[in-house]
Amino acid sequence: MPGRQSSSAATVLRAVLEHGPVARSTVARLSGMSAAAVTRQYAGLAGLGLVTETGRLARGGLGHPHIPVDIDVENHVVAGIHIAHAQCTVAVLDLRGRIRAQVSVPHVSTEPLALLHHVAQQLRAFLGSQVPLGLGVAIGGWVDPDEGVVVEHASLGWHDVPVGDLLARHTGLPVRVDSHTRALVRAEQLFGEVRSAESVVHLFVGNVVDAAIVTGGVTHRGPRSAAGDIAHLPFGDLACGRGHSGCFEVTVSDRAWGERAGTSIRDVLASGRAGDRAARALMAERARIVGQAAALLFDVINPEVLVVTELGVLTFPECLSALRSEVAERSTVCADPGRSVLASSFSGDTVLGVAAGAVQLDAIYSDPLAVPVFGLT
Ligand SMILES: [Zn+2]
Predict the structure, then answer these.
(1) Ligand 1 center to residue 247 CA distance, Å?
(2) 251 CA → ligand 1 middle, Å
(3) Containing structural domain, residue 358
(4) In angstroms, rounded to a whole number, what is the distance separating the alpha carbons of residues 301 and 200?
(5) Which of 125, 278, 362, 375 fits a disulfide with 133 by CB distance 3.0 to 4.6 angstroms?
């Protein structure tokens, strides 16, 4: 657990993230800390290369409390690996959670040792001489972040894979692993639109479908962090891998939706972007089904905000409308879906890389004084 100094440092860093560029005196006012305490914490954070003064030194000289300070986005980066059904997304992010560069690495095998060894090699090549502060790994399914273990990932067929240990050994970096849906809800809290919401449900629909639940500002994980599996909510009439009929994931997954169109979901999306009405109608149809699950989750959990990460909703306004009207029709507690049902703050092109990087950025913003010294440049 972070100590008191560390939690004061985290408070200052979070205030600079949220309000920067911002004067130290304003940080003191916002955080309720003394100006001297903020100046001390700022100095420690600046020494680690996490914050910096911005703009010209108009008056007062170095260290003047009214010179705005901000997150240092030039000095450090974090690395991220998102592991999907058919490929990994390898990304480098700045400390504001923005993608600097990313690349897609198709799986050479779904066997975990071979896959992780390969993607670690690709990451090293991608990084070149950059030394990131750490590596975040995001993946769907059941993930135990305390152990860095992927407990179960149905579409990859993984059980109890020690992803954190394996990638730490291959990369030499500090590694954190979490489910991509929890990672994205953290990214929303740090860098997105729902920073101040105390209760949030995040619904992720890709090849894996899962949810993250935040109450009192904290993500609920439960024993072994198994919370959030909504793959087998009953929907439609397709049989799933467990022999049920009509489960949510098997009905709306990227693969299922691609098969409906006789192609891949990315092709459907590309056709829709090019103006193909049938493709856009197909995506709106998926958004409607996702809306049915969203309405159900909304009534079970009653969050301030429900966020959806799904390619159609992230790309086409009519998909977001279809999602919201389904929630409006079915939910008894959601009074205003226009305000409380939102698309992810991150675009379809960046969302997987952001999820991965956020796993490591969460560690830095939670306990900045634990930033590894070897990462200093
Ligand atoms: Zn099922």
Answers:
(1) 5
(2) 10
(3) 78-183+352-375
(4) 9
(5) 375
